[in-house]
From TrEMBL:
It holds the Pfam family Glutaredoxin. SUPFAM superfamilies: Thioredoxin-like. Keywords: 2Fe-2S, Iron, Iron-sulfur, Metal-binding, Redox-active center. Belongs to the glutaredoxin family. Monothiol subfamily. Residues 16-80 form the Glutaredoxin domain. NCBIfam families: Grx4 family monothiol glutaredoxin (TIGR00365). It comes from the Bacteria. This is Glutaredoxin. PROSITE patterns: GLUTAREDOXIN_2.
Amino acid sequence: MDTEARIRKQIAENPVILYMKGTPAAPECGFSRAAVGALSKVGKPFAYVNVLTAPHIREKLPKLFQWPTFPQLFVNGELIGGSDIILEMEADGSLKELLEKAVPQA
């Protein structure tokens, strides 16, 4: 499977996925740390890909979605944005609303 197909499969299979530097338990940049913090406050599960250990994804993803930086949050297959947008959405309540729709209670 090529890199683009792998990325599209990850996005399709995970209602909420964060492409980040590091892991949720150990983010490796402040922007990824902020994004994980905002997502964690909502309390819904999310998948992640550590782009530092996936150089092909780190190189290809920005070109696919015209978003040059990490982290990148996708919800239901749609690019939401990076940490600045995630934090703005957390502040106005729209992140919680979006994630609750994407990941309903079991």
